[in-house]
Amino acid sequence: MTVRMGIVGCGAIALNMHAPAAVATGGLQLSAAIDSDLALARSLANKFAIAHVGCNIRELAGMLDAVLIATPPHTHVALAAEAFDAGLHVLCEKPMANTAAECAEMIRLAAAAGRILAIGHNFRFFPVRRQLRQLLHQHGLGEIESIVATEGKPYTWPTLTGYTVRRELVPGGVILNAGIHTLDLILWWLGDPVEVTYEDDAVGGLESNARVGLRFRGGRSASFRQSRTCALPYQIRVIAQRGEILMSTNATRDYTLKTSGSSTRLRVLSDAADETDYARAQLSDFARSIEDAGLPLVPGPEGARVIRLIDQLYAIKRARPLPERAPIPGLTW
Amino acid sequence: MVNRRYEGKAVLVIGGTGFIGGRLAERLVLEEGAREVRVLVRNWSRAVWVSRYRVELVPGDVLDAASLARAMVGIDVVFHCASAPADNGGYTRTNVEGTRAVIAACLAQGVSRLVYVSSIAVHGDDHEGVLSADSPRPLTGRDYSDSKVLAEDLVFEAARSNALYCVIIRPTYVWGPRSSLFTVRPLREMKQDRFKWVDNGRGICAAVHVDNVVEAILLAGSKSGLSGRAYLVTDGEDLTWADFFGNYLRHLGVTAARALDSRSRLARAGCRATDVLRTIVERLKGNPAPLWRKVVRRLALELGRRMERRYMSAWDLHKYSRRAPVDIASTHRELGYVPVVSVAAGMRDTLLWVQDQYGGELGSPTPVAGTVPVHPAGQG
């Protein structure tokens, strides 16, 4: 069976990541480009030879099995509802939604419609991340004690709607938009935190620099600093009982093994070659879950989990009084 | 709220995603009680600084009259701080045509005031005596300074016709958090041992902290009876460049050994040649281009890089060698300007910002415990 999929939202991520991956993924046919701006839909359709173009899901639902929602997060719950209503399966870009309440609604709608809801945490498809537990075991490192991550570069993403900086559309800035990848990873590896600390540089608007501290059961911890104004190492340190695994945030297979006195660069085995392949892996996983009626690698509740954490972080932000004077830009403390 | 000079006012900051305009928007919304602070956004990804505040981001461009008209609906005061980005048609287009469009939109939308942020560059680079806002504004053939002179002419004309209340602020050399030219660039040059002292740093440092520029802009937009006036703004402290840059060197824990003597004919000729090469590189930009153009541009680029190891632009040489002060008496007297940040306090904050945002590259080897955040890049 070939899954006929439409892309909803023909902006930057559809153009740069999903459409190129979709046309190269077996078991899946990219059948429709859908955008409220029909010109954008047409432009994507022309570029990738997509047969159908439309400005909403409903009008093309008859010729589709599934949709990939690649619009800004404030639109996700309504679009997912429209898709489930039309009997379609949904792969939804991260962030799953703006709030945990919206995520819960999406999960409920998927269950009621009996359709697959997968969330686009494509970084989980990186082999080095999927195989972390095996790596810890294989190198005899023991259990994870803490994770220390940093990530930052001046923001240049060619967003068409500007939603990532518009507080009328999103509840947060760099954490919701980009930090979500690393936070998702931390929750995936360590579970739900029991204690949360948070600082950011927002002054009534959206944060562009933030620091997250998490404590987990058994004394494990994680810290994460992120910026979209300055360069910080794209680095994740997984510190275990008898050594650590160091990986670049963007590394799909490479990592460094550090044990007392030695540091070795290694690579996990994988067939996939570049990042587009992980976009493909995600689409294949989605198509397979539809075919087998099984769970995708990142089902709705997994996408909702990191949003619940981000809700908590933003509650801390909202409780903070505004300063009297404009503070030094970028400082989070 | 610290001041209430803009209480109840709706204001638009053009250039509010940038360095000076961004800080202005921050202060307007948090400290001045403005009812609404709108920021014109040409490129969303540049809005990551100003979007940290409760401002209204409106898409638009100074070269798009319709977007200016939309952005100015219901606005009382317009602050025009936009300058030419490299990808937007060059200085003349953005600075001159953009300013023309801003003035036209202000008139059409019934905006009551315009503050235009110009530059000390309008006074050219061969002025040897005391510089004041009444000093000549010659056209020098340099794209940037000429574009600012012509843009100012448009603003003066609007003020003369009494159609629009306009004031011009001319900052000197603006430093502080987010300053590329007078904070990050010199630090980087020092770190990479490319920094050159001109005349051993004995030139007068007439720099200005961004918060002091913003203070002058805020005064210009709120005081009456000053339409058609232009004001230079500096920190007003008696410093040499050696005093000023010494702070950066101490922060980095390095010394600077390279030197240029502004009286040396060779140095002056080298700086002029560096300028010529830069101009060639700039003028021959663009794709597609015939092969000869690419070759000449490439050669000029390579040669220019080599020259810049020893020299700097003639404008920089002039700036760092000037011994005559910048007179801001009229800025004090008429505008009521008093610096809100001393160089010492501004430097402390600026270096905190550098440590936080550039700690991996430009961090201090001995950060002050308890005040300077430890940068994660410094750990590895």
What does this structure look like?
Chain A is built from ten helices and 14 strands. Helix content of chain A is 35%, strand content 26%. Chain A is α/β, with parallel strands linked by helices and 333 residues long. In chain A, strand 11 and strand 12 form a beta hairpin. With 380 residues, chain B is of the alpha/beta class. In chain B, 44% of the residues lie in helices and 13% in strands. The longest helix of chain B has 20 residues. Chain B contains twelve helices and eleven strands. In chain B, helix 1 links the parallel strand 1 and strand 2. The interface between A and B is large, with 44 and 37 residues.
The chain-level mean pLDDT of chain B equals 92
> Major sheet of chain A: order of its strands?
8-9-10-7-11-12-13-14
Poorly predicted segments of chain A: none
Largest interface: A-B, 44 and 37 residues
Describe the global form of chain B: globular
* SSE pattern of chain A: EHEHEHEHEHEHHEHEEEEEEEHH
Per DSSP, the total helix count of chain A is 10
Q: In terms of per-residue confidence, which ranges of chain B show pLDDT below 50 for 5 or more consecutive residues?
A: 369-380
Strand tally of chain A is 14
Short description, anyone?
The complex is a heterodimer of chains A (333) and B (380). Chain A is of the alpha/beta class.
Key features?
heterodimer, A: 333 residues, alpha/beta, 8-stranded mixed sheet, 6-stranded parallel sheet, 10 helices, globular, B: 380 residues, two-stranded parallel ribbon, 12 helices, 13% strand, disordered C terminus
